[in-house]
Amino acid sequence: MNTVNNSTLHNASVLRQIVLNAAFYTVMLCLLSGIHAPHGHAAPDAKALSKACTAKNVVSSEDGIRRLALIVGVGQYKSTKIPDLPGPPQDAKRIYQLLTGPNGYDFPKENVCVLIDDAATTANFKHFFSSFLIDRAQPNDEVVFYYAGHGSQTRDHDGDEPDGMDETFVFHDARDSGIKDFTDDEFDELLTRLHQKTSHITIFLDSCNSGTALRGDTEFLSRYIPPPESEIENKTETETVIERGSASESLANNQKTGWITKSLPGIVVFTAAGDGTVALEKNSRGIFTDAILTTFGQVNATQLTYAQAARQIRPLVKAESYQIPYFQGNLQRTVFAGVNRKSPLAWEVIETAPQLKLGGFPLPGVDTGAEFRVYDGFLNGADLHDPTKAKAVVIVEESTGLNATARIISRSVDTAPIRPGDLAVLSRPGSAQRMLKVTLRSHTEQGGITVEKAKLINASLDQNQDAKNMVQLVKDNGVFEISYDNDQYIISGPENRVRNRFNTVDSVIENLRLHALQRVLSSLRGEGGSLFADQDTLQVQLVPADKQDRCAQDLSWRQAPPNAIAAQEIPLCYRWNVKVRLSEKSPVRLLVGGLILSTDGSIFGLPADGTAIPLGPGEEAVFAARGETFIASEPLNIEDQIVVFGTQETNPVPWSRLTQSAVERAGDSKSGLYRILDQYLKGTRGVSQPVETDDTDTAWTRSSITMRVINPDH
Question: Is residue 31 in a domain?
Answer without folding.
Answer: no
